[in-house]
Amino acid sequence: MNQKKKAFTLIELLVVIAIIGVLATLAVVALQQARSRARDSKRMADMKQVQTALELFFSENNRYPSEEEWASGDISSLSGDVFMHNIPSAPTPADGACDENSNFYIYSQTNSGSSYAISFCTGSQVSDFLAGEKQLTPGGINSSSEPVEDGGVSVECTSENVVGDSRGGGILFYAAYPDLGDPIMLIAANSDQSSGKSWGCDGIYIGAISDSNGEGDTALILENPCGTLSAAKTASDYRGGGYSDWYLPSYTELNNLLGYFGIYDVYYWSSSEVDVSSAKSVSLPQEIVRSFKFTNTAKAAPAIETPPSYAKGNAHKVRAIRAVGTPPIK
């Protein structure tokens, strides 16, 4: 006897349709997320390509492009060398933590051409960088992170590379992240404190011989009566940002400062003393500055094999710095 096959009931049919709808929705969401991640990856890749082109431009012109040069749509030198034929635009639409107003690559030349900043935004976390607005500088990509106390004032730190930001009364030119303790940050004044100043204390041995601790060297110089007319006093008298802890950088700190800002063939005093009549002054050769700016990511600048020694009475430039989260550079 043949039995009649039982068809789907209405309820079973509705359940099947519902399951198909859920699966379709999940597939659409997964596709949208994949596309969003792909757009964020492109934004980060664009920044790396642009950074390389900008460093090539700097190596030839000893400055970064102006906003007008950037607006031309390519990165090229006056000699005709083209380092990037088409400056990329941010992919659309905006994603996640970004809105339409932040989904642009906004370039600005800073520090009279010695630095730059490009604002951009990623909708989700990419590698170690959190979602949200970011900034590309010569030192890398910055994104907001935990604050660090700077003289009782909360100073925003960033992910791994934070150099190039305006911080603590100046420009952040060195940052390191030890396994234990706070970030180590060195901040340079926005401009020179003197275009020609003697080191001071000629004929007097101070004992300021550290090549890494400019803050300590400066304190030793100022403890001596001769320090009132010194380059160290000029640096310590600076009050940029309302801070009173500026000092004359040590030999190693000064190497990093000049390397980051791309300053070459100009002499600056360090706080590092040699003997009763001489101290260390730094003037980086152009080729070292170019190598430093192209490859450095918050690491120490290459030091000259034989640190130069100059008479304390010579008139050299002075640029003050301050430290947040010392110990000093080793």
Task: Give a short overview.
The protein has helices spanning 10-61, 67-71, 214-223, 231-236, 251-261, 286-295, and strands spanning 75-76, 82-84, 106-110, 115-122, 132-137, 140-150, 153-158, 166-167, 170-176, 184-188, 194-197, 268-273, 278-282, 309-311, 316-318, 321-324. The chain has two domains: 14-143, Glycoprotein, Type 4 Pilin (2-Layer Sandwich), CATH 3.30.700; 165-323, no CATH class.
Query: How many structural domains in the coordinates?
Result: 2
Low-confidence stretches: 144-161, 289-301
Helix percent reads 25-40%
Number of strands: 16
* Overall geometry: elongated
Keywords: Membrane, Methylation, Transmembrane, Transmembrane helix
Subcellular location: Membrane
Membrane topology: Single-pass membrane protein
GO cellular component, one term: type II protein secretion system complex
Task: Provide a descriptive summary of the structure in words.
With 330 residues, the chain is an alpha+beta fold. The chain has two domains: 14-143, Glycoprotein, Type 4 Pilin (2-Layer Sandwich), CATH 3.30.700; 165-323, no CATH class. It is 28% helix and 24% strand. It is built from six helices and 16 strands. It has a five-stranded antiparallel β-sheet, with helices on one face. The protein has a four-stranded antiparallel β-sheet with strand order 8-9-10-16. A three-stranded antiparallel β-sheet has the order 12-13-14. α5 (251-261) crosses α6 (286-295). The relative contact order is 0.11. Residues 144-161 and 289-301 have low confidence and may be disordered.
